Amino acid sequence: MICISIMASLICFGSLVQCQKNEIVEDLLNVIFKLKKSKCYGGGQTSIPAFTATLSKDLTPQINEIIIFDSVKTNVGGHYSSSTGIFTSPRNGLYMISATMRSTATKHLHCELMVNEGMKVKIFGTNYSTGTISVVLLLKTGDKVSIKKDHRSGEGILGREWSMFSGYFIA
Ligand SMILES: *[C@@H]1O[C@H](CO)[C@@H](O)[C@H](O)[C@H]1NC(C)=O
């Protein structure tokens, strides 16, 4: 009986150590990444994957169209494409992704944040109001993040720097 409980404790302790080990390695990787992006190592903030792009013109999107935010304000690492509207995750990790979209006069606006083919959250605006989303996502290298028009037709998005899509790597 004692033997079994000692064994169980050891197994338990073993998995605890294993768990702590993973967290330590993760912390170390974060420190290394922070060092890499620090000025001392030639990186500076400019090595953190990050983007912001806005819509320069009003748009009447097609059903399921990926919205192309054509006016790029920030694109560190070049992982956002202003020809496809897609941000491609450059590495595994946590990302902050946000979007603000303003609808045109008297119209509703329904859009969706997509990761690959999967919808994560929805965005809604109406009659010149804005819809905003902020999501923290665990992404894998190569995941494709975009804002898509949903299945409803006849809606309008206000451009002229009123609608935007942003994201950055946290850790
Ligand atoms: C849209 O907003 C304007 C300004 O607030 C308001 O006068 C108008 O009644 C609204 N139209 C609709 C269809 O909600």
From TrEMBL:
SUPFAM superfamilies, per database record: TNF-like (SSF49842)
Signal peptide boundaries: 1-19
Location of this chain's protein in the cell: Secreted
Keyword Signal: yes
C1q domain residues: 44-171
Keywords: Secreted, Signal
GO cellular component terms, A-Z: extracellular region
InterPro entries given in the database record: C1q_dom (IPR001073), Collagen/C1q_domain (IPR050392), Tumour_necrosis_fac-like_dom (IPR008983)
Name by which UniProt lists this protein: C1q domain-containing protein
